């Protein structure tokens, strides 16, 4: 294993042996980094997230928003308490106690791993979504989805190096890219992109979100809280994701590939 790539701390180079057609050869592959981030709130540990280093402030901001810990518009103060060479970090976020939301008041100890966004939830009620269905009747075409997909793909630098990262890209109603972030975790990439818009006070412009992997309940819930009415996924959608998307007015599209896609919820938005 080498030191971090100085231009991109999202991957390490690992040596390996490639076996192909009975022949062996030494290779050095870029491998996406998975490292722990401890998030402190007001100097006290709140949670540990397994993520790819980079855009940590955006990740925290998006997580706070999605978990209903802090949804205010004011900028937050972040402090890097510790940052190790292997990507393990501790970051503190100061939030006035009177501004902390229910998500913090219902504090739980959880380890958020890179593949699962609801690990640590203690009761079934914790995964319920509440609120009015989104109302967005703007039509869009499969050609526009293709253009957005190509745009996202062209900017997945970490995936290009490693083949092991996910991406989330958010576009406005004119299909202009607002944010794209990568991470080893699907929901982390979503948190980073939403957090980026929250920090830059641009979340109200969000219209459509593309994700490079599958869509679970957790990603639909994050889109719903951010009032993003369209989700397009390269891969599959879970049953719970489809059920919630139908209930909350989100157009959910899966298996979006060249010249094909499957619309699972609210198809009236696609022409």
Give a structural overview:
The protein is α/β, with parallel strands linked by helices and 271 residues long. The protein has a domain at 142-269: Cytidine Deaminase, domain 2 (3-Layer(aba) Sandwich), CATH 3.40.140.10. The chain is built from seven helices and 13 strands. Strand 10 (208-211), helix 6 and strand 11 form a beta-alpha-beta unit. The radius of gyration is 19 Å and the shape is flat. 38% of the residues are buried. Mean pLDDT is 83; it is low at 1-8 and 120-127.
Key features of this structure:
alpha/beta, Cytidine Deaminase, domain 2, six-stranded mixed β-sheet, five-stranded mixed β-sheet, 31% strand, disordered N terminus
Number of strands: 13
Shape: flat
Oligomer state of the chains in this structure? single chain
Distance between the termini: 49 Å
Helix content: 10-25%
Map the helices and strands.
Elements lengths: L10 E10 L2 E10 L2 E7 L2 E8 L4 H11 L10 E7 L5 E6 L7 H4 L4 E3 L29 H13 L2 H6 L3 E6 L5 E7 L2 H14 L8 E4 L5 H9 L4 E4 L5 H9 L3 E7 L2 E6 L6
Helix pairs in contact: 1-5, 6-7
């Amino acid at each position: 294993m080498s030191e971090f790539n100085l231009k991109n701390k999202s991957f390490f180079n690992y040596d390996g042996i490639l076996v192909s057609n009975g022949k062996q050869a030494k290779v050095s592959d870029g491998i996406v980094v998975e490292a722990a981030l401890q998030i402190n709130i007001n100097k006290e540990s709140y949670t540990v997230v397994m993520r790819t280093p980079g855009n940590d402030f955006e990740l925290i901001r998006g997580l706070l928003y999605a978990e209903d810990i802090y949804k205010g518009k004011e900028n937050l103060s972040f402090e890097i308490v510790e940052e190790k060479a292997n990507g393990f970090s501790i970051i503190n976020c100061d939030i006035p106690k009177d501004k902390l939301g229910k998500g913090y008041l219902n504090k739980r100890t959880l380890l958020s791993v890179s593949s699962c966004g609801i690990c640590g939830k203690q009761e079934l009620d914790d995964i319920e979504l509440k609120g009015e269905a989104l109302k967005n009747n703007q039509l869009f075409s499969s050609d526009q989805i293709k253009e957005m997909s190509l745009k996202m793909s062209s900017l997945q630098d970490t995936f290009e190096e490693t083949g092991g990262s996910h991406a989330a890209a958010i576009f406005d109603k004119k299909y202009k890219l607002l944010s794209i972030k990568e991470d080893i975790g699907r929901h982390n990439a979503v948190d980073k992109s939403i957090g980026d818009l929250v920090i830059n006070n641009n979340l109200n412009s969000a219209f459509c979100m593309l994700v490079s992997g599958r869509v679970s309940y957790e990603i639909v819930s994050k889109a719903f809280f951010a009032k993003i009415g369209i989700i397009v996924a390269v891969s599959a959608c879970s049953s719970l994701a489809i059920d919630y998307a139908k209930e909350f007015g989100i157009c959910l599209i899966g298996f979006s590939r060249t010249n094909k896609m499957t619309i699972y919820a609210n198809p009236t938005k696609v022409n």
